[in-house]
Amino acid sequence: MLKLAVFDFDSTLMDGETIDFFAEELGIGEEVARITEEAMSGRLDFFESLQQRVGLLKGLDYKVVEKISQNLPYMNGAKETIAELKKRGMTVVCFSGGFRSATGYAKDILGYDADFSNVLHEKDGKLTGLVGGDMMFSHSKGDMLTRLQNILGVTEDETLVCGDGANDLSMFAHAGTRVAFCGRDILKKEATIIINEKDLTQILKEI
Predict the structure, then answer these.
(1) From its phi and psi, is residue 59 left (phi > 0), alpha (psi between -120 and 50) or beta?
(2) Which of 4, 74, 162, 192 is deepest in the core (most CB within 10 A)?
(3) At 87, phi and psi to the nearest 5?
(4) How far apart are the C-alpha atoms of 45 and 31, rounded to whole Å?
């Protein structure tokens, strides 16, 4: 019986990549999206790509960051799926290589129990181009998942994880139910459930 569900945020609970929305404000959307794609496909180290992309955001007004973070398009069925999983007695958590400005805001809207993500450093109301937090490395999600399982007393077989990119592989290694949601090929190879439709409620039919 499943007790813990962990979801990625960007392109999983939210339809798009938060950092790409920020980059569009600075007119560098294509450049940042290209680096994001390389990282999510596993061709670029996640830590390096994160630093590189956030560095390009230097100077962006933090009020703009907050406004974008609070107006993101959530994935079809995200709210309903989380509500149903919680009704089934599961703890639902969000792990994101993205940013607390987005995951913290979405928490109460989508209904998950906790979020672990990264924080954009700002000074004098503008981004400095620096970032820190819980999900900085390609192994971060797996590392955090095992710690969470220990705290909650949950086994791998009682754990469901859902994501779309290469930085979700580390948490796939510690879960019995592994959902690749509109995922990259590198993730689909390790998945037990593959969903190619942008509708998270499809998960409910499979578990």
Answers:
(1) left
(2) 162
(3) -65, -30
(4) 17
134-167: pLDDT as tens digits: 999 999 999 999 999 999 999 999 999 999 998 9
Beta-carbon neighbour count of residue 39 at 10 Å? 23
DSSP helix/strand/coil, 108:
helix
Q: What is the DSSP string of 122-172?
A: EETTEEEEEEEES--STTHHHHHHHHHHHHHT--GGGEEEEESSGGGHHHH
Q: In the chain, what is the straight-line distance between the N-terminal and C-terminal CA atoms, in Å? A: 10
Q: How many CB atoms lie within 10 A of CB 202?
A: 18
Residue listed under structure tokens 């994160």: 50
Residue 14 is given by DSSP the state B
- Can you list the domains of the chain with their CATH numbers? 4-206 (3.40.50.1000)
Alpha-carbon distance 94 to 79, whole Å?
A: 13
| Greatest pairwise CA separation for the chain in angstroms | 49
pTM exceeds 0.90: yes
Amino acid letter for position 117 = S
Angle between helices 46-55 and 29-40 (to 10 degrees): 170
Beta bridge partners of 91: 4
Closest CA to 118 of 134, 95, 142: 134
